[in-house]
Structure formats: structure tokens, C-alpha cells
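Chain X:
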Amino acid sequence: MKKFLWTLPLAYMALIWTLSSFPADEFVALPDLSLDRIIKESLHLVEFGILYLLFALALYGNGQLTKKTSLLFAIIACLYGALDEIHQSFVPYRSATWIDLVKDVIGVTVAYYFVNRFYFLKKNKLEQKL
């Protein structure tokens, strides 16, 4: 059952790849173009943060969440963001920009910060009390 947790980030990566294979307005296009753009651009911050959190969940569920593995999978999530941007550069009506990659990395960094702040800091405090 614990190994099942690894299917979550892998399935999510497949979903990201599939959705980025379509034009940006393929599934949802809001009537207000500026609002549509703002929402879709801000999703970069969330999308890859979620990917890292799914990796962290899989690591935690399998007893493998350490500072080292957390950092490793944060880097993997960032690299997948870069790969996704390269992929989008070949998709008609999609774009790949450095600012999108920066937003992907910021999303991962924020999620990584919270995992490290709330998991490892509390874990260290508990260990010190014992």
C-alpha cells in the first residue's frame, strides 16, 4: 500500500505533461482575457509545488523523508518544471519562458520551505525532548 504513494507524483507528472501538450485555452478560457492570463500564469507557482508535496508525501509514507531526500526531490521537481517548459516550446500556441521556469522553481521552493519548517523542525524539537 505504501508503494502506491509513488504513483501519485508519477500520475501527476503525466497529467502535467498531457495538459501542457494542448494549447493554453484548450480546456478553459475565461471571458476576461487578462484575468484568464493572470490565473493561468499563477498556476505555475502552485503546479510544481504540488508535485514536490506529492514526492514528499510518498517519501514520508515510505519512511524515506530525510533532509537529503527532500532536497533531492525538490531538485527533481524543479528539473521537471524545466523539462515541461522545453516541452511546451514545441507545442503550437504554447510558450516557454524563463519567467515561467522561475515561477515553477518558486512554487517548489515555497513547498520545500514549509515541509522543512514544519516537519524537520518539529521532528528535531521532539528528538531534543527525548
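Chain Y:
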Amino acid sequence: MALIHCDFFSEVLGVSTSMYVILPQATKNQIGMEGRTIRSKHPTLYLLHGLSDDHTIWLRRTSIERYVAPLGLAVVMPAVGRSFYTDMKNGYRYWTFISEELPEIARSFFPLSDKREDNFVAGLSMGGYGAFKLALRCPDKYAAAASLSGALDIVNLVKNAAEPMASEFYNIFGDPQTVEGSDNDLYYLAQKVAQSQGPKPKLYQCCGTEDFLYQGNIAFRDYCQKLGLDITYEEGPGQHEWGFWDKYIQNVLKWLPL
């Protein structure tokens, strides 16, 4: 594998930002690991971080580079701050960045496939929300999406937040009463995709049974199943922590339709 720390300028954000990129490399002589490539334009997983993290976190807390080496899968890990992958009311346009600009920039730098069947997105917590939002708002671009302990019921999280998080949510989403039924509401997006005649991404969802987001994850799973969406759900003992995510990202990689 090749690991690249890429600093670049974002026209959408108006500032320089960063991403880590893992690129497949066919190798036979590495001790303890064999790399693989499966085509000249690599299938790609956009791997999203959580609220208190940045683009380095998946590399620092898991063995993601080792996990993807035999798969021939590229991984793009961008930095988005505490944005909830949203064009913020008071802040940067991170939704436009992550959904439009980032894939174009990454493909201009690296040999990444632009085919829907080769593009996937996953994330933890805030990144789980971002992953499902990307796949459900852009079902023509992503074949599959995975949420690990995702903050999926954003409507209730925003409405019931106490300070200082309530003010932070206001700066991200604006008036809490406007979130429900908007393009930031995963329930609304799931229903919209289910009722459409267009492509529908495969969904994977997992959560620890002791996680404070567990009940919200169960509710969203049940809603997607009721809509008839293709969703795979797993759970197990665990809280909102990296031991759980390091284990289940391996399940995500096995599940991806590569």
C-alpha cells in the first residue's frame, strides 16, 4: 500500500485542508502483508471521521491500512471539522465540499474510479451520519454506505441538545425546527430514496449495545427495514469507542460489494 498525506486548497471552503489517502499496491515481498490491485482505476472507500476527530484518526486508532491491503481498495480520509458534513449556517460549506469537490480533486490527483459500483462511503458517529447522508442524497454516486455507531436521528439530537452543543448545532443547521423533512434529515432521505425509481445504495449499520446512540440506531434500522431498503444490521457489546469500531470496520470491508 501507499500512504499519502495530501495537503491541498479547497475552492469551496476557501482554505487549505488535508486528507490521507491509501492507494493499493501489488506486492509479494513485504513481510507480514501482501498488497493487491484489482484494476487500473481503484475502487474507493471514503472513510469519514467523528465529531472530535480529524483525517488522521482512522490511521491512528485502527489498522485500516493493513485491513484494506489485500482488497485492492483505495481509501480517502478527509478532514471536515465539527461540521456534520453540512453546508453550515454559520461556517463552511462542508456538504458541497464532501459531495462534489472532494471526489473531483481526489480523482484528479490519484487513479480512482468514478463508476458508481466502485464508490463506497463509511464513517463513525458524526461520520456515520455523513456516510448515510452522502449515499442517500447521492444514490447515483455510491453503491454502498456504512454507519458505525452513527448519529442517525439528527432531528431529535438537534432538538434536545443542551448547551453548549445546542448553540453549536444552531451554527451548523440553523433553527432546530427546520431540520425535520430537510436534506439533513436521514429519515426524510431514506423515504425519498425508497420511493424513487432510481438506484438505491446498499446500507450497513452497526452499533454497540451499551452505546448512548443505540436506541437511535435501532429506530433507524427499523425504519429502513419498513421502507424495504437493503440494510444489513449488526450489533454487539460495546460503547462509543475505538475497540468497537476497529472490530466492526473489518466487518464493513468484508460486506462491501467489491
